[in-house]
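Two entries, shown back to back:
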Amino acid sequence: MAELEGMTDEQISSSIKEMESLIRREKNEFTNSKKKTEELNRRLKENREKLKLNTQLPHMVANVGEILEPEEEDEGDHDGSGFDVKKSGNDDKAEKKQKALVIKTTGRHTVYLPVPGMVEAEDLKPGELIAVNKESFIVYEKLPAEYDSRVMAMEVDERPTEDYTDIGGLDKQIEELTEAIVLPMTHKERFENIGIRPPKGLLMHGPPGTGKTLMARACAA
């Protein structure tokens, strides 16, 4: 109030106009900031949905083949006009070049990834197991060395107690299972003497309830 007492009507009117102008500018800045915030939240939501979609199946297991250092560029870059464009020192420091990745999938594909994905190339080592997208091959995560996601569901924590005597009516199938799986391990020399290469495994197929799992557990026992 003391300031207003020493001011003329024109000065008071001018001060009021300045304050009104300042209030309008603040309102405009607030409105613009609110719009930018809403736009950023919308884009964040879209990116989260895309990320969620990309990290879902289909995915596959792959091995890290090579980790390639970024290529050294010339002192000048070309902008398409035929002249070299020199970058400032600050830009060179700010721009961090990313390592590339070469992976080998279980489908016997070798894929070059200039951008690894959700795992930094510095955190990977050649030979490590990784989970990758089945279509884009971007890396989702590292897999523990002692586990393979393809066989985790088939692991047996304890030795089965089933025996072949628990199975009835599958004598022929049991004999084939023994010849293909057991004999190459218990009598390896017989196959070597004859020159027969034993099979690496056996595929059992048939309707549910016909004894496939029981046979496999008896064989494992």
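entry 2 starts here
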Amino acid sequence: MIAINRTAIVRMPGQAFLDWLHRVDPTSGGLSLEDFRREPTVCLLPECGNEEEARGHLEEVRGGVFREQLTGWYRVPSLWPSRRDLDAFDRWFERSFHSVVAALRAAPLLQEEI
């Protein structure tokens, strides 16, 4: 294994996100938190020494992360929540930080803008 100098944040929509989605999109009524948990998103932050430092990095990018998640589920920005600060992020998403990130094989890491 090869250690990668990043901190991973594993995140998935939480109950507040699901409640909002059910309100704005009637076709989402069959979705549950279990559906969201099947495929969480893993994002890489700069290497962090503790969760407080990781939260600081998350504060810098949370607007983009919020927009990406909202766009992925409902593309009408006028119906998105207006408050998308870190406190709202904490209510809308379940997440965990991981300081050990390892590649299992020595293959090149590709970068692609999404």
